[in-house]
Amino acid sequence: NSFCTLLCKMGKLVFDLDNTLYSFNETGFSGDMRERIHKWFEQSLKLSPEAAVALSNQYYKEYGLSARGLKIHHGEADLEGYLKFVHDLDLTKLTACPQLRVMLESAAAAGWEMWVMTNGTRKHADDVLVALGVADLFGSRVYDCRDQWAASAPGEVHNKPEQSAYEGFAKHSKAQPGETMVMIEDSMMNLHAPAALGWVPVWISYGQDLPADAEPKSRVIKTILELPLALEGLTP
Description:
Elements: E1 11-15, H1 24-27, H2 29-44, H3 49-63, H4 66-73, H5 79-86, H6 98-109, E2 112-117, H7 122-132, H8 135-138, E3 142-143, H9 145-150, H10 163-172, E4 180-185, H11 192-196, E5 200-204, E6 219-221, H12 227-231
Parallel strand pairs: 1-2, 1-4, 2-3, 4-5, 5-6
Protein name: Pyrimidine 5'-nucleotidase
GO molecular function, one term: nucleotidase activity
GO biological process, one term: nucleotide catabolic process
């Protein structure tokens, strides 16, 4: 068992979903989602193709999620329609990964409580977890974009990478004071706030060099299957 129960006692493993539990390179989902985002902006906001790309990218950079920009600046927009359209992906490109399941089963056996925290939708997360063959290991422990927005202060809209989103998750998941919290992400910008809260940040690099905005406390692994290496030495 690659998870040592003496070193890795109970805590929470909080996984990002897309490009974390599976690789975008293996599915092409990154390009598929970008195309659908740009198409929706173009058609629904009546923008030129160039303006649609520019605005959706601007919202992503400013808010960590293009949908949040829509919610803030385009209250009349069909946000539910947007979320459904963007996540309408061909999940047959995803296949169950036996090694992933074995690793997650080992983590659960070692006492880790596993969650998905995603800026996507719960339905998308559930569908991906089913396709990967690990849905039963997470159950209902999915915290999605709507959960993050609902936990925001009145009149505000927060999601990853903002610190309040992680604070909302901690409350929702009933995290105990001092409990070990591990955030596993492919996006470095989503690791700064958890690190500031005392969580353990784990960055999946896929072999890339550390970016200029690297979180200094990050534990770096190449793929999700190397997660046991990042958890070595952790205590409750």
